[in-house]
């Protein structure tokens, strides 16, 4: 049995392919965690493994990376099966596989779980994904139907086996393992090792190497953790409200991509904050200069990626804001560790979309602390804070200038005598001018009828969930100063796609405001969307791997002829006749009978 005495300083030392090493570094991992350092070499050799480690220690990468290195992308059939106790974890693990395999052309991973369309899963299985991630019940359904082929499987992973035991799945797991023929590699991971888990291990992991990583208590006791659930208000506007009302000295804001660090820094600077980006593209000299500026109070806010912020230790950082939720719990602990050091109290704020609630719960389990939900500061609270800061600054300046004020007192006296203006009016005018770009009185939000407010709230909720069937979206105002390019995405109506899914995915994953997302046209097997010309390559690469309705978008410039018919209001265009399978009606559903139908006027 091995434990955490194994210390590896870099993923380069583990024998992984260069493409996978590059992926994990791009995500933000620099040093393997103990479970990763111990597990990866064993699984790379094709050996079975019994691993004991707590949630949040990086277990997913410890089995996903070595198993990906043994995948044959030319073979379109299941080669790895991962069993998880919940649908949320299944989705999370599938997304992790997709991120690590971003440079593996032809790779596909499919999450399967109860509550999701069986018809859609059958269609996706026919596409030949190499990795299946699923809950025991749904995996058993497919095995009994004969729709999940185990003959080509090389490995099976049992993730969080003790949770599956608690939920009563252990007998199902035992049965599933019996369906996967020998020889196959088995990796079992569990936070605890009760007797029932040991029995399964003895039956199916004969001769497996055991690895045990002692649990650590996360050092976040001095950090006040809160989260805001993204809903309705633009993330940038929400961030500004929070920064205005939080009493912070210095802050570090975490985002996922290098491009986002620059964009967010520019937006904050435009709103009057002293902010700068910190990312892996910066050379060492520029990085050190930025950190020194933060230490010397020439900067107040740094927007960083996980990679760039590793090892960052600046005493005056009081706040860590997770603008983008991290990919795993270990990264979260590293992030918030930038504050609350040496016994000082720090604050950590996490932005969470509804679909990221599963990661929020995983973070709470890993840190063994409840993260409190926070309300977004109101416009009145922002205005009150601005007034307070203005008063304080006037008092401080008045105490500092001293005798130099005599000339200005005489100047003000002349103004009152020559123009019959009161001292109060002069002071008020000067105060207004000073705060012209940062008004102390915020204009009220326009009132909407109750019904309109409710519809707007419901629509925002649906957008955060990625859209719902039957959703009708309002027409978006197209910017007149932007050139649009038509892109094709390999997801269509047959996958259950709705326009809201496309807008939600692009807005959330690429940070593109909805007004910059042009016409969306849906067909059976694909769709098109118009985006601004000159899209950065890293954003497009990220969108290629982004999944909508559990299918990768695989976005690319649409080089086909432009559609002849334009969208009519909110309605999607009619599909070409050859895009609708025989026997379907206009909604994509089977017709009640096969009798010939009368041609429409646009088909004659």
Explain this structure:
- This protein has 21 helices and 20 strands.
- The chain has 604 residues and is of the alpha/beta class.
- The protein has 4 domains: 202 residues, P-loop containing nucleotide triphosphate hydrolases (Rossmann fold, 3-Layer(aba) Sandwich); 155 residues, P-loop containing nucleotide triphosphate hydrolases (Rossmann fold, 3-Layer(aba) Sandwich); 57 residues, no CATH class; 113 residues, RRM (RNA recognition motif) domain (Alpha-Beta Plaits, 2-Layer Sandwich), CATH 3.30.70.330.
- It has a 7-stranded parallel beta sheet, sandwiched between helices.
- The longest helix is centred in the middle third of the chain and has 23 residues.
- It is elongated and about 100 Å long.
- Belongs to the DEAD box helicase family. DeaD/CsdA subfamily.
- This is ATP-dependent RNA helicase DeaD.
- Keywords: ATP-binding, Cytoplasm, Helicase, Hydrolase, Nucleotide-binding, RNA-binding, Stress response.
- It is found in: Cytoplasm.
SSE blueprint:
Elements: H1 18-27, H2 34-44, E1 49-52, H3 59-68, E2 80-83, H4 87-100, E3 109-112, H5 118-126, E4 131-134, H6 136-145, E5 155-158, H7 161-166, H8 170-179, E6 185-190, H9 195-204, E7 209-212, E8 223-229, H10 235-245, E9 250-254, H11 258-270, E10 275-278, H12 284-295, E11 301-304, H13 306-309, E12 317-322, H14 329-336, E13 346-352, H15 357-367, E14 372-373, H16 379-401, H17 405-419, H18 423-434, H19 450-464, E15 484-489, H20 499-510, E16 520-522, E17 527-532, H21 537-545, E18 547-548, E19 551-552, E20 556-557
Parallel strand pairs: 1-6, 1-7, 2-4, 2-5, 3-4, 5-6, 8-13, 8-14, 9-11, 9-12, 10-11, 12-13
Antiparallel strand pairs: 15-17, 15-20, 16-17, 18-19
């Amino acid at each position: 049995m091995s434990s955490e005495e194994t210390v590896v300083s870099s993923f380069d030392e583990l024998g992984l392919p260069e493409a996978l090493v590059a992926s994990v570094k791009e995500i933000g991992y620099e040093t393997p965690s103990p479970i990763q350092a111990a597990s990866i070499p064993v699984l790379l050799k094709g050996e079975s493994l019994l691993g004991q480690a707590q949630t949040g220690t990086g277990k997913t990468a410890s089995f996903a990376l070595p198993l990906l290195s043994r995948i044959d992308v030319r073979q379109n059939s299941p080669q790895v099966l991962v069993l998880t106790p919940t649908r949320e974890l299944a989705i999370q693990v599938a997304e992790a596989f997709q991120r690590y395999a971003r440079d593996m052309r032809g790779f596909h991973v499919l999450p399967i779980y109860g509550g999701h369309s069986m018809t859609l899963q059958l269609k996706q299985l026919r596409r030949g994904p190499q990795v299946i991630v699923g809950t025991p019940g749904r995996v058993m359904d497919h095995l009994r139907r004969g729709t999940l082929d185990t003959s080509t499987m090389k490995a099976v992973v049992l993730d969080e086996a003790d949770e599956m035991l608690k939920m009563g799945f252990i007998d199902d797991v035992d049965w599933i393992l019996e369906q996967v023929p020998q020889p196959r590699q088995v990796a079992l991971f569990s936070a605890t090792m009760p007797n029932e888990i040991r029995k399964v291990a003895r039956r199916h992991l004969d001769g497996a190497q055991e690895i045990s990583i002692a649990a650590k208590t996360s050092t976040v006791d001095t950090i006040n953790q809160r989260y805001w659930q993204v809903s309705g208000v633009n993330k940038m506007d929400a961030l500004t409200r929070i920064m205005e009302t939080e009493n912070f000295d210095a802050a570090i804001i975490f985002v996922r991509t290098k491009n986002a660090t620059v964009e967010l820094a520019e937006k904050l600077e435009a709103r009057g904050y002293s902010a700068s980006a910190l990312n892996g593209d910066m050379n060492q000299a520029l990085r050190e200069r930025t950190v020194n500026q933060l230490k010397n109070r020439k900067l107040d806010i740094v927007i960083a990626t996980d990679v760039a912020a590793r090892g960052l230790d600046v005493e005056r950082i009081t706040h860590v804001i997770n603008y983008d939720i991290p990919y795993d719990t270990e990264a979260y602990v590293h992030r918030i560790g930038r504050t609350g050091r040496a016994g000082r109290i720090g604050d950590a704020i996490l932005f969470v979309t509804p679909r990221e609630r599963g990661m929020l719960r995983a973070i709470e389990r890993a840190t063994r602390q409840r993260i409190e939900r926070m309300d977004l500061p109101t416009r009145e609270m922002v205005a009150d804070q601005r007034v307070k800061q203005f008063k304080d600054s006037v008092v401080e300046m008045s105490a500092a200038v001293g005798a130099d004020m005599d000339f200005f007192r005489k100047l003000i006296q002349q103004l009152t005598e020559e123009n019959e203006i009161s001292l109060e009016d002069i002071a008020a005018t000067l105060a207004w001018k000073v705060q012209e770009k940062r008004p102390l009185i915020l204009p009220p939000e326009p009132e909407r009828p109750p019904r309109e407010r409710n519809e707007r709230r419901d629509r925002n909720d649906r957008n955060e969930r990625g859209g719902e069937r039957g959703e009708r979206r309002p027409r978006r105002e197209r910017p007149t100063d932007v050139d649009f390019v038509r892109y094709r995405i390999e997801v269509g109506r047959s996958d259950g796609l709705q326009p809201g899914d496309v807008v939600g995915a692009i807005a959330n994953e690429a940070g593109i405001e909805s007004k910059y997302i042009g016409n969306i046209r849906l067909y059976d097997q694909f769709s098109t969307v118009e985006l601004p010309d000159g899209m950065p390559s890293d954003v497009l690469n990220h969108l290629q791997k982004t999944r909508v309705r559990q299918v990768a978008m695989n976005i690319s410039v649409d080089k086909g002829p432009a559609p002849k018919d334009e969208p009519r209001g909110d309605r999607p265009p009619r599909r070409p006749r050859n895009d609708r399978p025989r026997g379907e009606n206009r909604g994509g559903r089977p017709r009640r009978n096969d009798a010939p139908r009368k041609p429409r006027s646009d088909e004659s």
